Amino acid sequence: MSNDNNRLIRPDDSALWDLFRAGDEAAYTQLMKMYSKTLFNYGFRICQDKDFLKDCIQDVFLELWNRRLKISSTPAVKYYLFKALRLRIFREQAKWNRGEQLDDNYEFVVEFNIETKMIADLETIELSTRIQQVLNALPNRQREIMYLRFYEGLDFDNISQIMDLSKQSVHNLLQKAYKSFRSEWLILITLFSKHII
């Protein structure tokens, strides 16, 4: 099993999932506690209407409980929940307070924890801020893919299913994001090197 899948699959998740599917309310409650914050963090990057987002998360869990006998077993609970939330947000977009239309031009806000995720050895706020600016300059889908791949540890198959894209499209968008990020990264490193010398 790859490291990506190890980050995606926690041993207790699939066991809890199966208990929940069998009607165990304690397992269901535990899953909600484990994933509500993670789902909110992901959903907030798509829609910044907090009340709407909380409703979507609640609806996802309510629907899961109501359909528990029809839901299949899964080793990747996080992926399953991300996909369910993303579908719910897009399906319920007419209820957004701001009345925005959500399509391919939706805003995906990235607030990576730069210090722990990308530059653990560099403890400078200026460089972290500049890197975050580079990430946020990427097109929305590229930002979302970068978030799902590197922050949430999802693999190409999971990302393609969550975002309803082909695996090749995910790969192509990620390569474009890499290319953009690398060119900006070289500029940042050059500027940073001159600044600290």
Automatic annotation (TrEMBL):
Q: Could you tell me the Gene Ontology terms of the biological process aspect for this record?
A: DNA-templated transcription initiation
Q: Which keywords fit this entry according to its UniProt record?
A: Sigma factor, Transcription, Transcription regulation
InterPro entries assigned to the protein according to its UniProt record, in alphabetical order: RNA_pol_sigma-70-like, RNA_pol_sigma-70_dom, RNA_pol_sigma70_r4_t2, RNA_pol_sigma_r2, RNA_pol_sigma_r3/r4-like, WH-like_DNA-bd_sf
The organism's place on the tree of life at top rank: Bacteria
Keyword Transcription attributed: yes
Q: Which molecular-function annotation in GO is an example for this chain?
A: sigma factor activity
The name of this protein is Sigma-70 family RNA polymerase sigma factor
Give the taxonomic lineage as stored in the record: Bacteria, Pseudomonadati, Bacteroidota, Sphingobacteriia, Sphingobacteriales
